[in-house]
């Protein structure tokens, strides 16, 4: 059975002075099967590309995630990824956090995500800076991962957005 993974990857790019990070949504039965797709989507240097963490996304906001080759026709709700940045007193760097939510619009997703991130992730930040909003349906998952569509089915179950694995795994 194919699974949807949210991966956090790191590496370098020409002209960069420090390590860069990105998030990729990939599909596979096991995380190892997603490595070619992760490599194909990385914008930087292939040497040194590594996996920092991943989570198999199976439930978000009370919705079970399934993957299918056909789009889901009976829902207006979509899975959104929202990335935030914030600044902490005494720290030079901007800190980032992100979450995934189910919502019927990007505007609603931003509101839901901001509440989650402020409560748990960037709580205490002096100032928030919203960066990226990515709808993960036929835009990211479908176009980049063998035409798999995200289907959402309400069942009331929740999943904490915590890594199934974290560390440093160079990609073969």
SSE layout:
Layout: E1 3-11, E2 20-28, H1 35-41, E3 50-57, E4 59-60, E5 63-68, E6 78-87, E7 95-103, H2 106-121, E8 127-135, H3 141-144, E9 149-154, E10 165-170
Antiparallel strand pairs: 1-2, 1-3, 3-10, 4-5, 5-9, 6-7, 6-8
Give a structural overview.
The protein is α+β, with helices and mostly antiparallel strands and 172 residues long. The protein has one domain (3-170): protein il1583 fold (3-Layer(bba) Sandwich). It contains three helices and ten strands. Strand 1 (3-11) and strand 2 form a beta hairpin. The two termini are 23 Å apart. The model is unreliable at 133-145 (pLDDT under 50).
Summary, kept brief:
The protein is of the alpha+beta class and 172 residues long. The protein has three helices and ten strands. Residues 133-145 have low confidence and may be disordered.
